[in-house]
Structure to design on (400 residues):
């Protein structure tokens, strides 16, 4: 018997490779095996690098089919490996010149979750966006709150050092659980209300708007009012837990003590300035976001906006709205902590004039730096997560 090549996986359609000069002796021209079952893949195709490489099969002048040894069900092996490699990839038809249609692989594995109810999709997307964005900027929120009421220092550095000295790293996340519990439903309601109102007020394609102002401005104001009315007591509890250290043992303890000692109405102290602050903030925030998205599509002539672009657009919208409405936020915080600082305010205008009298214009913008450091990325992350979740949560199997 002469020395022969053993056919093990070459690159023809039957998927065999050639391993040459290994000293094997083989006489059978063609060996057929019974049904073996099971699926296997070539070692070299899964990247192990054992030196087995595909080589073309030399032509056999005798025409006896190559005289090699074939492994059973090689076609299934190759289809199995090819299926793993292309898992999650989609084919997209691309029309080229002269009507030629080519299939282009598009892909990667994309997460899709089927939820038929559009309202539920918006609520879930908003809740996830709120929880993620607020947790990411929790330390900046704590520093901002302390700066507003002046309880731990007059600069971000002083507040940070005081918190680290007294409570350590956990102090930076004090009240964060309450913040997440408050923000998740608040953002869900807010984004749901905005999308719903904006969809009904926006003109259809080709129609002229019947409103004298942008629909997103009205939708943003409605969204802010809706979420504030529902979640305001949690905001007050979070502020008390952050400022009054050692007074309360937790969210439930704070709620019980405030209702028992100060009355249920105390849970809504500062609601008026909060609403006055939320309406312009939410209106400008959503209007700026909608306007910047439309401008991006018009300038770059792209209908789809990526995650990074959404992050930047949302951050810019947050910067515009927070700067314009920050004095009302300061007045609201002062009214919430009320008697703690030895000052009593009758209403939001009294709080604003009192701050101006004692601290000047700078007092109305105390904490604006860390506030923007917190609100700007929080707005960007929130909008980015919301848009990303809307792509993950789909209506039917075809979208998935």
């Amino acid at each position: 018997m002469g020395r022969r090549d053993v056919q093990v996986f070459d690159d023809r359609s039957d998927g065999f490779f050639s391993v040459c000069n290994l000293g094997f002796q083989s006489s059978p021209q063609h060996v057929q095996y019974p049904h073996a079952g099971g699926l296997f893949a070539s070692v070299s195709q899964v990247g192990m690098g054992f030196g087995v490489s595909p080589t073309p099969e030399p032509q056999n002048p005798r025409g006896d089919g190559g005289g090699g040894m074939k492994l059973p069900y090689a076609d299934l092996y190759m289809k199995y490996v090819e299926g793993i490699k292309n898992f999650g990839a989609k084919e997209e038809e691309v029309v080229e010149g002269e009507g030629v249609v080519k299939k282009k692989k598009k892909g990667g594995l994309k997460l899709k979750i089927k939820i038929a109810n559009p309202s539920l999709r918006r609520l879930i997307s908003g809740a996830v966006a709120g929880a993620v964005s607020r947790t990411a900027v929790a330390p900046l929120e704590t520093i901002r709150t302390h700066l507003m009421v002046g309880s731990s220092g007059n600069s971000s550095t002083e507040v940070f050092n005081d918190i680290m000295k007294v409570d350590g790293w956990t102090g930076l996340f004090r009240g964060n659980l309450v913040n997440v519990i408050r923000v998740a439903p608040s953002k869900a309601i807010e984004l749901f209300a905005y999308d719903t109102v904006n969809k009904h007020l926006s003109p259809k394609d080709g129609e002229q708007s019947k409103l004298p102002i942008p629909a997103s401005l009205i939708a943003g104001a409605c969204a802010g009012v809706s979420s504030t009315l529902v979640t305001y007591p949690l905001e007050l509890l979070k502020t008390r837990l952050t400022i009054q250290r050692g007074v309360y043992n937790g969210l439930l303890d704070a709620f019980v003590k405030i209702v028992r000692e100060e009355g249920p109405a105390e849970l809504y102290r500062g609601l008026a300035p909060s609403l006055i602050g939320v309406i312009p903030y939410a209106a400008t925030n959503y209007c700026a976001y909608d306007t910047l998205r439309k401008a991006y599509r018009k300038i770059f002539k792209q209908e789809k906006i990526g995650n990074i672009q959404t992050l930047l657009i949302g951050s810019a919208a947050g910067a515009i709205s927070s700067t314009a409405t920050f004095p009302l936020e300061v007045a609201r915080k002062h009214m919430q902590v009320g008697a703690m600082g030895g000052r009593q305010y009758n209403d939001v205008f009294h709080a604003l004039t009192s701050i101006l009298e004692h601290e000047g214009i700078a007092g109305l913008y105390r904490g604006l730096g860390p506030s923007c450091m917190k609100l700007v990325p929080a707005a960007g992350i929130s909008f980015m997560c919301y848009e990303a979740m809307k792509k993950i949560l789909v209506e039917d199997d075809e979208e998935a």
